[in-house]
Specification:
Blueprint (H helix, E strand, L loop, with lengths): L1 H8 L4 E2 L2 H4 L16 E3 L4 H14 L3 E4 L18 E4 L6 E5 L4 E5 L4 H10 L16 H7 L6 H4 L6 E7 L5 E5 L11 H5 L8 E8 L6 E9 L2 H13 L6 E6 H11 L9 E9 L1 H17 L4 E4 L3 H12 L1 H6 L4 E4 L2 E2 L5 H14 L3 E7 L4 E8 L4 H20 L18 H5 L1 H14 L14
Parallel strand pairs: 2-4, 3-4
Antiparallel strand pairs: 1-2, 5-6, 6-9, 7-8, 7-9, 10-12, 10-13, 11-12, 11-16, 14-17, 15-17, 16-17
Helix pairs in contact: 8-10, 8-13, 13-14
Length: 457
């Protein structure tokens, strides 16, 4: 098949040498890797169709990959060294920007940041902003249904997908959706592929919804001596019928790491900080910002820093965006996880994570999207230390169990992949897993697409 691939794509678009394919043996997930047999770079849906037809005939596993920023092992060729990684990064063109219908049509390899920038130049706004938006591709965002800092107000990637072009495992090219705001003709097939993690088809094009940009924005940083006070502030803000653009959280460990890394003047003598941002009409923004500051102070906030201009606002926002990078400097291995709980359980869940960390004598930093209950407990460890890695695994087992006990979910935005595979049945139940297996077998009877992820056939 390697010979056939070179004839189809050209010699330079098929990598087989060890030093060339090594970067495609892992993604952003620590302690997981597997060398593929080859890496290919198609440039058209028709080329992808031909690849999948070949793979189906020869029962060769195909793993679709964008820029490899995933955090659940979803784009790793883990099942066998004979897997072929199908990389869509060369399919990165803007195909159409329709200002009349507020849509943008792009290829799957285009980065999220590029989509945001192209929309901005046209006076429009693409809201989803995963932490990796500068490098992550839209195909991967859609396959994982990525979230981001603006998710509380604007929603996640699914809320902005109006249509998809998908190549099925059989090689058929299917278009789903359109520019219509309302359309209930038949099954919503595009929604089947959003969040499917590359198990059902290869996304090649995406028709995305754009919105008018907010007129104004105000960014604030609130400092709390007590974790519970920060969590109560979040609950009170939502109860006051305010839906901020951003409502983010950093714990004491993360604050110290971020300040050491970025030197932006964060206080080190506090237990939590909240990054709060409101956007919209200038009058509403001013009123909401004042109200959020009042709520924070009522709950014992010791200081509120209000950005005076866009430069200061960007600096405050960076405190949250660089959290993972800052934590990664502390230890050789940074294992970041992704759980979501009801907002009423936030403070209790943070305390539980800290207790589990103390129990196993591990170092943990916790940050995340407090506004929508999404936490990222991040253990700082060394994957070469087998004993400590075993403790990290046991710690996460307890965290996942507690998450489900309080009515939460084991992933809010990073996906299942390999990292959450063993806990998915407990989260969804056997019946739901069986339905997903049925869908997988219907579209991919030979199981060639991304085998070994999410669930076993």
């Amino acid at each position: 098949m390697i010979t056939e691939l070179k004839e189809l794509l050209g010699q330079n678009n098929v990598l087989t040498e060890t030093e060339d394919i090594l970067p495609y043996a892992y993604d952003g997930t620590p302690a997981l890797w597997q060398m593929p047999r080859a890496v290919v770079f198609p440039q058209t849906p028709e080329q992808i169709s031909a690849i999948l037809k070949h793979a189906n005939e020869k029962n060769i596993p195909i793993v679709t990959r964008g820029n490899g920023t995933g955090l659940s092992g979803g784009s790793l060729p883990l099942m066998t060294g004979d897997s072929i990684v199908l990389c869509t990064t060369q399919m990165n063109r803007l195909l159409e920007l329709d200002s009349q219908n507020l849509t943008i049509l792009v290829e799957a390899g285009m980065t999220t940041q590029d989509i945001f920038d192209r929309a901005s130049k046209a006076g429009l706004f693409y809201p989803p902003d995963p932490g990796s938006m500068k490098t992550s591709s839209i195909g991967g965002n859609i396959a994982e249904n990525s979230g981001g800092l603006r998710g509380l107000k604007y929603g996640v990637t699914r809320n902005y997908v109006m249509g998809l072009e998908v190549v099925l495992p059989s090689g058929e090219i299917v278009w789903t959706g359109n520019k219509c705001v309302k359309d209930v003709a038949g099954f919503s097939l595009k929604d089947l592929f959003i969040g499917s993690e590359g198990l059902l088809g290869v996304i090649t094009k995406a028709l995305l919804r754009l919105v008018p940009p907010p007129q104004a924005r105000k960014t604030m940083l609130a400092v709390f001596k007590k974790m519970d006070a920060a969590a109560q502030t979040v609950s009170d803000i939502i109860a006051a019928s305010i839906i901020p653009c951003t409502l983010e959280f950093l714990d004491k460990t993360t604050i110290a790491c971020v300040e050491s890394y970025a030197r932006i003047g964060l206080p080190l003598d506090c237990e939590a900080i909240l990054l709060m941002e409101t956007d919209g009409h200038s009058v509403v923004v001013s009123e909401e910002a004042d109200e959020m500051c009042k709520i924070a102070r009522k709950n014992g906030c010791v200081d509120v820093r209000i950005a005076a201009n866009s430069t200061e606002a960007k600096q405050l926002t960076e405190a949250r965006r660089v959290s993972l990078s800052a934590l990664a400097r502390v230890s050789p291995t940074t294992i970041l996880e992704d759980i979501t709980v009801p907002r009423s359980e936030l403070a209790n869940m943070v305390r539980f994570i800290q207790r589990v960390s103390d129990k196993y004598r591990l170092k943990v930093g916790i940050f995340g999207h407090f506004g929508d209950g999404n936490l990222h407990p991040t253990f700082l460890t060394d994957e070469k230390n087998e004993g400590e890695m075993k403790k990290v695994e046991m710690a996460f087992d307890e965290i996942f169990q507690e998450t489900l006990r309080v009515g939460g979910t084991v992933t809010g935005e990073h996906g299942v992949g390999m990292a959450k595979k063993k806990v998915l049945p407990g989260a969804l139940g056997a019946e739901a897993i069986q339905v997903m297996r049925f869908l997988k077998k219907s579209l991919d009877p030979k199981g060639i697409l991304n085998p070994g992820k999410m669930f076993d056939l």
